[in-house]
């Protein structure tokens, strides 16, 4: 009996390792292209409006979001509700905590991250990079801190919209990729495409 179980576990492990090490070049191509264009657009906006190290549009948490939104598109954390809600809630909390405790970083930093996690859990918008968005509001440059609640609108909301729009385009370019994972979105999309085709003919 134990030998059969060991053999079964061995076969399962072998299969998992095989699946994990498969290289799907199409998948990698679209993940690369989507993330490259989204971050490229944000970097371009950054280069037009700001110089030097005044990183305002290009915050670090967008890099982490790109990994999820373009690399693991079926993950619950990658879905639009989580991407948008997680960042906005965390940005708002980060700014609020900074205003309440501007000079006590050892309390402000953990408080902003912890409150963000709990509120994302409550609102079902858990998005791991949101914790970084809250933290950036506390430890970011003076340029970011001076934005106050405008930080929630720009760079966070504008940046998230760019990431989302790019994801909706590039994550649906092939039949293998489908984003978001909620079927209702694709049903609405089909109806819209059908209406457009009908009105065009």
Compile the SSE list and pairings:
Elements: H1 2-20, H2 25-49, H3 61-71, H4 80-100, H5 105-122, H6 129-139, H7 142-147, H8 150-170, H9 183-200
Helix pairs in contact: 2-3, 2-8, 3-6, 3-8, 4-5, 4-6, 4-8, 5-6
**Which residues sit in consecutive blocks of at least 5 with pLDDT less than 50?**
none
How many strands appear in the DSSP assignment? Answer: 0
Q: What is the overall pLDDT average? A: 86
In what range is the share of β-strand residues? under 5%
**Range of helix content:** over 70%
Element pattern in H and E: HHHHHHHHH
The number of helices is 9
Global morphology: globular
Content-based structural category: mainly alpha
Number of domains: 1
- Spatial separation of the terminal alpha carbons: 67 Å
Rg (CA only): 21 Å
Could you describe the largest sheet, including whether it forms a barrel? none
What brief labels describe this structure?
201 residues; mainly alpha; 75% helix
Structure, described:
With 201 residues, this protein is mostly helical. It has one domain (22-176). The chain has nine helices and no strands. It has helices spanning 2-20, 25-49, 61-71, 80-100, 105-122, 129-139, 142-147, 150-170, 183-200. Helix 2 (25-49) runs antiparallel to helix 3 and helix 4 (80-100) runs antiparallel to helix 8. The chain is globular and about 55 Å long.
A few lines on this structure:
This protein has 201 residues and is an all-alpha fold. It contains 9 helices and no strands. The chain is globular, with a radius of gyration of 21 Å.
């Amino acid at each position: 009996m134990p030998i059969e179980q060991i053999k079964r576990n061995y076969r399962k492990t072998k299969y998992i390792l095989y699946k994990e090490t498969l290289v799907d070049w199409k998948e990698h191509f679209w993940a690369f292209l989507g993330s490259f264009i989204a971050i490229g657009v944000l970097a371009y906006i950054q280069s037009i409006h700001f110089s030097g190290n005044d990183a305002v549009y290009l915050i670090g948490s967008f890099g982490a979001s790109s990994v999820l939104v373009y690399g693991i598109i079926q993950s619950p954390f990658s879905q639009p509700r989580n991407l948008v809600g997680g960042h906005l809630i965390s940005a708002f909390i980060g700014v609020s905590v900074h205003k309440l405790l501007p000079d006590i970083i050892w309390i402000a930093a953990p408080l902003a991250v912890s409150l963000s996690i709990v509120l994302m859990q409550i609102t079902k918008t858990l998005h791991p990079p949101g914790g970084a968005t809250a933290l950036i509001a506390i430890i970011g440059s003076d340029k970011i801190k001076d934005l106050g609640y405008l930080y929630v609108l720009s760079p966070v909301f504008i940046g998230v919209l760019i990431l989302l729009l790019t994801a909706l385009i590039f994550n649906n370019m092939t039949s293998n990729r489908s984003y978001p994972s909620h079927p209702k979105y694709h049903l609405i999309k089909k109806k819209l495409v059908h209406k457009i085709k009908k009105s065009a003919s």
